[in-house]
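Hi support team,

I submitted a single chain yesterday and got back a structure, but I'm not sure I'm reading the token output correctly. Could someone confirm the output below corresponds to the sequence I sent? I've pasted both exactly as they appear in my results page.

Thanks,
R.
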Amino acid sequence: MPVPCTMRNSESAISVFLTVMMLAAGVFGQDVSGMTLADELKGLAPGPRIAYTRHLIAEGREDAEVFFQLAIAYHESSIPDSAIKYYNEAVSRDPDHFKSYVNLGVLYDDMGDLLEAEESFLSAVRVNPGDVLANSHLAFMIFQQKRYDKAWLFLSKALELAPDHPQPMFYLAIFFWENKMFREALREWERVVEVAPGSYLAGRARDNIVLLQKALNDPVPTGDTKPLR
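Hi R., thanks for writing in. Yes, this is the structure output for that exact sequence:
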């Protein structure tokens, strides 16, 4: 957590703090009037971002973006309760704040709360029906609850929107794996590696290919080993 300032002169404290912020952001000598808040905070560690956004709120700024940026900083600091609080503050001010819904979905998924994750991704898809990642993640949240027909509706939408996007491909492979369609799963993970070779998903796909090849070499493949997601 940020260390509280003990300087007697609060205006001086804020001045020093903002100077440090500007130095860290490397924006001296630039016209910052047209910069977004995300631009101002770019490159800063979560602690200074929390301090600065809370200062802006204390000074009266109340738009969705300032709460969203504060939520991201808490999210990256692994303080999920505060992140959830401020993502929800963002969407209370802007019910169409798409990125807040997506990040809430990711956070709830990481916490193992599939129902809340599903609701968040549903809200994201309501705001932006054509977003590939939101449709893909929503499909996988529903799939994990074994509601396969509904999950397929959203995954097929994602695949229709972007047939060569690695995320829906990756989830399609898991769909195939769970249905013991191992060769089809292998094909999709190989495609992930082909289209996004340096990505996190490609690394996971390579690991799953190794697991899958072991399953294929098993005289009686069961598919009981769970793939990495």
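A quick pointer for reading it: The two ends are 32 Å apart (CA to CA). Let us know if anything else looks off.

Best,
Support desk
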